[in-house]
Amino acid sequence: MPVMKKYEFIEHTSDIGLRAYGGTLSKAFANAALGMFSIMAELKNVGEKESRRVEVNADDIEGLIFEWLNSLLYYFDVEMLIFKRFDIIEFEDTHLTAICYGEPYDSSHHRLKMGVKSATYHQLEVDREAGSVQVIFDV
Amino acid sequence: MPEWSGKLEKVDEFRWRIPRDYKPGMRVPGLIYADEGMLKQIVADRAPEQVANVAFLPGIVNYSLAMPDIHWGYGFAIGGVAAMRVSDGVVSPGGVGFDINCGVRIMRTNITQNEVKPKIKELIDALFYAVPSGMGSKGKIKLRSGEINDVLTKGSRWAVERGYGRPEDLQTTEENGEMKEVNTDYVSARAKERGTPQVGTLGSGNHFLEVGVIDEIYEKDIAKVMGIDDIGQVMLYVHCGSRGLGHQVADDYIKEMVRAMQKYGIQVPDRQLACAPVNSPEGKRYLTAMRGAANYAWANRQCITHWVREAFCRVMGVSEKEAGLELIYDVTHNIAKIEEHEVEGVKESLCVHRKGATRAFPPGHPDIPGKYRSVGQPILIPGDMGRLSYVLAGTERAMKETFGSTCHGAGRMQSRSAMKKRFSGRDVLRELESRGIVVRAGSMSGLAEEAPEAYKDVESVVNVAHGAGISKKVARTRPIAVVKG
Fold first, then answer.
1. Are strands A125-127 and A132-138 parallel, antiparallel or unpaired?
2. What domains appear along chain A, each with residue ranges and CATH number?
3. What pLDDT band is residue A137 in, cutting at 50, 70 and 90?
4. What is the pTM of this model?
5. Which among B135, B204, B255 has CB closest to A67?
6. Tens of pLDDT along A24-35?
7. Is B408 assigned a catalytic role?
8. Which of B116, B166, B311, B354 shows the greatest Cβ crowding within 10 Å of its Cβ?
9. Are strands B30-33 and B64-71 parallel, antiparallel or unpaired?
10. How near does any CA of chain A get to the CA of B106, in Å?
11. Tell me: domain B9-413+455-484, CATH 3.90.1860.10, correct?
């Protein structure tokens, strides 16, 4: 079976976006987070030394992806945590719980790439049937 | 993306109208300031569609405007200006953006290019070390518990009271660097947590410090009033915003506005335009939090200004007094403000959104500092890394046509990833050095993203703003050294 693409980037004049796949929305949400951190940092040298339980609530599924990605950016700003694995253990339209694994940025062996200010609602798409999401970031 | 194929009517050499009937739901027409040459890029970028979408917002008056540096944004186009009646209009956090009060300031010096040239490498290194920059950079300032609330309410004044900069800097900062009517209870704990370690940091992306020299003076008398005396005079720029605090405030309130739209029965073509009536509890809460974030950004630039002065004087071996280093002005280019403007002959209170646009108030306006009352508000238009930047002055025509607004920069036209495919950071570094520009950057790939080729030519942007009469060219600077965040 061919390996399914986890995410791909979308060209945008001032910003950068991605389309994340997974077959299910829960997996697509995890892959969107992975894609976002791969915009921000080179992930291959990032270990999984630390984990955080992240709980997110929103009014609807579009709100949930917005809130999910932006919550992870909060962890980066406050704790400098670069996440690279996301186990989503509870997933509903208005709620998710995930265990996120990664480690704090260390300039001696990590390389940062691009700052992401926020996920946006602009052209945000959640495709339930395909199990994919599209997000544009403000960078 | 397919080219935009909507209706665009030529008004004159510098003005293009999107008629109201282009899309049902537009409350006013769109108006784009551009020349014929720029139009191709603007249409290819599809930004006019976003100008049309903004025209849907309740209470919008006259036009949904786009300045000549317009480019495709998220929700609002970058370079967008929209004014809504306070009485029955809305405020939209997307019309301000995530980097609330991203802005730029310029300091004049008594030092010439010839004096700085032999020390330029030393100077740019000193600036690079003096000002924390790059992604995730933490500041040198430790805030006491709860002190973040002082930053949010006092802005630049907080910084000056802490010993960063001079009291007179406040007079030459838009809003004196301190917007009133801030309620820190409406800034979330998350926003404060993100902002606390980042006070006094440049950040990344297109934020920079620049050493420039005066290259041309168009209006000698106006320039003189601003402290711009001669060709070859060294100027210092600081460009940055409100860091994670502003991003979080925007996130928090966009979410709240999505909910509010249901409550107030507002429909918009793009969720990123989420909004609420200016006078609603949601609208008021956003404005009070946004002003706090704006004050944070001014405090941020004020702290950085202090370190830039210290580093400059140390390297040049001069005292602050000898160096000059007066702040000419500081402008914000991502903001919403309640201002009085004339609409169809009647003074009206409006909520003016400037998303990648600069205030451009005319001579005589009470909101500009006394020393500039006779010449108009100084406007700073940074170009890109390799090119020219401009100092302009506000005009009466801007007041009449654009709610006292003009462009804010060169305007991106190539995506960051396209730039990285074409150039490496080292290519850009070499190219700039061959043109006599010394660069220090936190990240090489970041440098490639900001390659000069990514941007519209700032000269044509400024010529449109000048030609259309919405600002007046005063002077031009050429960069000789840049610290890129």
1. antiparallel
2. 7-138 (3.55.10.10)
3. very high
4. 0.96
5. B255
6. 999 999 999 999
7. yes
8. B354
9. parallel
10. 24
11. yes
